[in-house]
Design goal:
Elements (H helix, E strand, L loop, with lengths): L1 H11 L2 E2 L6 H16 L3 E6 L2 E7 L1 H10 L5 H16 L4 E3 L2 E5 H5 L8 H18 L2 E5 L5 E5 L17 H20 L22
Antiparallel strand pairs: 1-3, 2-3, 4-5, 5-7, 6-7
Helix pairs in contact: 4-6
Length: 209
């Protein structure tokens, strides 16, 4: 389901834009969005003169990741290079003609090790910009063990960086929102002709903070 959500996000041009509340609240939200657009942090898709979807630009994503303390594009590029090294070295499993790299290889750790859960989460955090962009795909076994695959569109992430300082408040808000989204995705009913792709078992982020 997470993979389906990412595909919808890419195809739709971002997240649906909606701001409820009073007229004053809506106008304030629109002003904030316009300011973010003018600063080059977001782009908005419009239909019939009305904004329908918004998404972060590369500069906006770099800034957002820095503020919540997540790895940036440089770490994603390094992980992409590690994936390519694994493929060249034959360190993958072939399933239906696709080459899947085990998370244990990228984490440099084995299942059962006390640090494996944390290291697996770090791998996913570093790969997340590539997963969202469709450069990397993920899947899990019925044990919750995660594997990654470079897609046909595997290209390097942007080289944009940000000097924004990490905010503890923003980090708490990010992980609280992520927890809510994980629960929503886990309970989301499947649409017709879609296939559920399980979240990795280590996305049990209740003990992150």
């Amino acid at each position: 389901m997470a993979a389906i959500e990412r595909r919808v996000f890419r195809n739709a041009g971002g997240l649906p834009w909606a701001c409820g509340g009073t007229s004053a609240t809506r106008k304030a939200a629109e002003r904030a969005l316009t300011a973010a657009e003018d600063a080059g942090l977001v782009t908005a898709t419009a239909a019939v003169g009305k904004r329908t979807h918004v998404r972060l630009t590369a500069a906006g994503e770099a800034r957002a990741r820095a503020i919540v303390g997540l790895p940036g594009f440089a770490e994603a590029a390094a992980m992409l290079a590690r994936c390519r090294e694994a493929l060249e070295a034959g360190q993958f499993a072939t399933i239906r003609g696709e080459r899947w790299i085990p998370e244990t290889l990228l984490a440099n750790c084995e299942y059962g090790h006390p640090d494996m859960k944390e290291l697996a989460m770090q791998v996913e955090d570093r790969l997340l910009p590539l997963l969202v962009a469709g450069t990397v795909a993920s899947n899990t076994s019925h044990y919750g063990w995660c594997w990654y695959m470079l897609t046909d569109t595997a290209t390097a992430p942007p080289t944009v960086t940000s000097d924004a300082k990490e905010s503890a408040t923003a980090r708490r808000h990010y992980f609280a929102t992520l927890r809510d989204e994980v629960e929503r995705i886990k309970n989301e009913p499947l649409k017709e002709n879609t296939v559920s792709i399980a979240l990795p078992a280590h996305v049990g982020i209740g003990d992150v903070l």
